[in-house]
Each structure stands twice: as structure tokens, then as C-alpha cells.
Design brief:
Layout: H1 8-18, H2 21-28, H3 35-45, E1 47-49, E2 64-66, E3 69-71, E4 75-77, H4 83-86, H5 90-101, E5 105-108, H6 115-121, E6 127-131, H7 137-149, E7 154-158, H8 168-173, E8 176-177, H9 183-189, H10 193-201, E9 215-216, H11 217-224, H12 231-240, E10 244-250, H13 253-262, E11 266-269, H14 283-294, E12 300-302, H15 309-317, E13 322-325, H16 327-359, E14 372-374, E15 379-380, H17 381-389
Parallel strand pairs: 4-13, 5-6, 6-7, 7-10, 10-11, 11-12, 12-13
Antiparallel strand pairs: 1-14, 2-3, 8-9, 14-15
Helix pairs in contact: 1-16, 5-6, 5-16, 13-14, 14-17, 15-16
The structure holds (2S)-2-hydroxyoctanoic acid.
Length: 390
């Protein structure tokens, strides 16, 4: 049945049927009017590709080096919170699927599998850890130490969450941690008995960082997160972390340039999947401006709104070194656990390979800005970036 899913949108439809509404909407939804997410998706949909003809590209190589190690594909799995609430295999499915595909997996501070549990699911492949700095710094520092001990090679220090964005779907659905059985959830559970049986019979969620549960996601997070984090925290964390450090949630050229000057190993242009500040800049639009400012050699990565391998190819063409997939991974997970995540990766892989072949490029470093324009304006995105800065 999963083989019948030809696109990430197909996996999303299966996921929606199989998952309780509140859990599905937590993943699928974004902040406020969800404008940032819609715009990010439209930005990718508006890409026009410009292929070269009569260039042999029969064997495309989708592999790259990222942050000091290999990846078989130009994307990794993004950190996602409360993952086992979506489907009980959670991070174990994500980490083992990533290992099988040869791509990095990122565990969130708000993950529902321990650092050591992820290491067991992906003992040889690359694990990354995403860090939120909590009010209680000792919790965050403890996680950094454990991730280093477990051999995670990269830390994604996430900076776009001083408080939780307004996730209106969660409020309307009464989504809480742990999920409560109410009249609404019971009615919604009737066509999805297997999800509930599975949820109620598997071990309780292991929260890496939250000391209390019981409340909406926003309430729990606002109680735990520190809105006063600053560049000083970055200094402290860098001093503690032996591996590569990346700052995730960069949303303007000035911060990007400052971070690269400070010598971080990479930055992720991200508006947190549109889940924090609605109307935040679209990372894909920011990309050429940032690359122009920080130079082609800096490790600039992108996430938000990636639903197709072509979105990834377009990002690489505009100078991204790597991309991260969040919802696309979770749709696969909710559609079918580990097999569903495998399907997500297989779909994206074939879309990347096909797009590259049709563009006439056989390796990622052959992709250039000239391969991409934005349909809405019909001028290269890179040139729009210059116009926008003048
Ligand atoms: C105040 C912190 O990544 C999500 C997760 C968790 C967000 C943390 C917000 O739901 O997007």
C-alpha cells in the first residue's frame, strides 16, 4: 500500500487517515494564519528549471560531504518534537531509516526517544542533536554532554523559539501532552482504533528534557524555554561541544554574516517550518542573498516547506550545501512507521535523481543558480536578491 504513494502528498493523505486529528494537525499545521508555510511551499512551486541539453547524465551522483562527513543524499532528517505521539516507532524509525539510506538523523531536545535510544537505532551512521537552551541551563548542558558521549557529530543550536508560536490548530483541537481522552478524541478515535491500541500498549514516551507533562504544547514549552538566550549562550555551548556546531533558525543576512564571522560550522536558514513567527522570511528566498554575503564556501543549509526532491535540487542550485526535511519525514512515519520513512526517502531520492538527469547535471556541484528562476517574476532568484538589497 505504501508503494502506491508516489509523492509526499500521497503519504500525507495516508497519514491523515491513520492518525488522530490533533496529532496530525500538530505536525501539519503552523503558526497563526500559516502564511509562512504556505508562502514557503509556493516559493518552491514557483521554481522554473532551466535544463542543459545533450549533456550525458545517465548516472547521477546525489552524494555530498556535509559538516565533515558523507551523506548519500543532499538532505537529512530534521529535529521534530513529540515524534512518538505521531506514530509510536518515532525516532527509532527515523534514525534507522536514515542509517539505511546513508543520511544524517537529528534528534530534537523535545524528542521522545533518549539520546542513547537513537544511538542504538543508528549505531554506525551519523546522528545530530538539536539543542534548545532551557531556563534550567543544567538540563540543556546535560543533554549536550550525553550527545557528545554517544558520538553525535553535530549540534544544531536552535534560536527561533524564544516562546512558542501560536499554533491555532492545537488550541482548537485541545491538543495536550499526553493526549487526553475526551468526547472529541473518542469520536475521532473510532475510525483509527489501531493508532490508539498501539499508543496505549507501547512504553511511555521518554522526554529528553521536559520535567513535567500535562498541558498544551505551547504551555509546556513556554514554561521550559528561555526567551533571554543570546550570543553568549552560543559561546558557552561552543565551549562544551567537541563536534561541529550549526545555528538553526537564521532569518536575516546580518545574523548569517555574524555567525559565519564567529566561525560556526554552519547555519540553517529556517523559520521553523512556519511554526513560530508567521510572515517570517521564506528561507528559500533568503538563500541567494545569504550566500552572496557569506560566500559560496560557507555551509548554508535550508529547511521549511520541502515536499519534493525538486525543492531540494533548487535549493542546492542556489547555493545551499544541504537541506533538512521535517514534515515530509513525519508524513511517512504517520503513514507507516519505519516503512513509511523509507518510502519518504525513496520518493525524494527518485525525484532528486530524475530532476538532476532532466536538468543535464550528473553531480550536485554541477548545479548552479542559472538552473533556477522564479516563475512569478521570471528573473533569476539570485538577481532578485540583489534588487531587494539595493
Ligand atoms: C518555545 C519553544 O519544534 C515544534 C517543535 C517545538 C517548538 C518549541 C517551541 O512544535 O515546532
Amino acid at each position: 500500500r505504501l508503494d502506491a504513494a508516489l509523492t509526499i502528498a500521497d503519504l500525507r493523505s495516508i497519514a491523515k487517515r491513520r492518525t488522530p486529528k490533533a496529532a496530525f494537525d500538530y505536525t501539519d499545521g503552523a503558526a497563526e494564519g500559516e502564511l509562512s508555510l504556505d508562502r514557503a511551499r509556493r516559493a518552491f512551486e514557483d521554481v522554473e528549471f532551466h535544463p542543459d541539453i545533450l549533456r550525458p547524465a545517465a548516472d547521477v551522483d546525489t552524494s555530498c560531504q556535509i559538516l565533515g562527513g558523507p551523506s548519500a543524499l543532499p538532505f537529512g532528517i530534521a529535529p521534530t518534537g513529540f515524534t512518538r505521539l505521531m506514530q509510536t516507532e518515532g525516532e527509532t524509525a527515523g534514525a534507522s531509516a536514515a542509517a539505511a539510506a546513508g543520511i544524517p538523523f537529528t534528534l530534537s531536545t523535545l524528542g521522545t526517544t533518549s539520546i542513547e535510544g537513537v544511538k542504538a537505532a543508528n549505531p554506525v551512521g551519523r546522528n545530530w542533536f538539536q539543542l534548545y537552551v532551557m531556563k534550567d541551563r543544567s538540563i540543556s548542558y546535560g543533554l549536550v554532554e550525553r550527545a557528545a558521549k554517544a558520538g553525535f557529530d553535530t549540534l544544531q543550536f536552535t534560536v527561533d523559539t524564544p516562546i512558542a508560536g501560536a499554533r491555532l490548530r492545537d488550541k482548537r483541537n485541545g491538543f495536550s501532552i499526553p493526549p487526553q481522552l475526551t468526547v472529541g478524541t473518542i469520536v475521532n478515535a473510532i475510525p483509527r482504533p489501531w493508532w490508539w491500541i498501539d499508543f496505549l500498549t507501547t512504553p511511555k514516551l521518554e522526554f529528553a528534557s521536559l520535567s513535567t507533562t500535562g498541558g498544551t504544547v505551547g504551555e509546556l514549552l513556554n514554561a521550559a524555554m528561555d526567551p533571554t538566550i543570546s550570543y553568549d549562550d552560543l559561546d558557552v555551548i561552543r565551549g562544551m561541544w567537541p563536534g561541529k556546531i550549526v545555528v538553526k533558525g537564521v532569518q536575516n543576512v546580518t545574523d548569517a554574516a555574524r555567525l559565519v564571522d564567529l566561525g560556526v560550522d554552519g547555519i540553517v536558514l529556517s523559520n521553523h517550518g512556519g511554526r513560530q513567527l508567521d510572515r517570517a522570511p521564506i528561507p528559500f528566498h533568503l538563500l541567494p542573498k545569504v550566500v552572496r554575503e557569506v560566500g559560496k564556501d560557507a555551509t548554508v543549509m535550508v529547511d521549511t516547506g520541502i515536499m519534493n526532491g525538486a525543492d531540494i535540487v533548487a535549493s542546492i542550485a542556489l547555493g545551499a550545501k544541504f537541506t533538512l526535511i521535517g514534515r515530509a519525514y513525519l508524513y511517512g512515519l504517520m503513514a507507516g512507521g519505519r516503512q513509511g520513512v523509507d518510502r519518504t526517502i525513496a520518493i525524494l531520492r527518485s525525484e532528486i535523481e530524475r530532476t538532476m538527469t532532466l536538468l543535464g547535471v550528473s553531480s550536485l556541484d554541477e548545479l548552479e543558480p542559472r538552473h533556477v528562476t522564479q516563475l512569478t517574476r521570471l528573473v533569476p532568484v539570485a538577481d532578485q536578491a540583489v534588487d531587494a538589497r539595493v
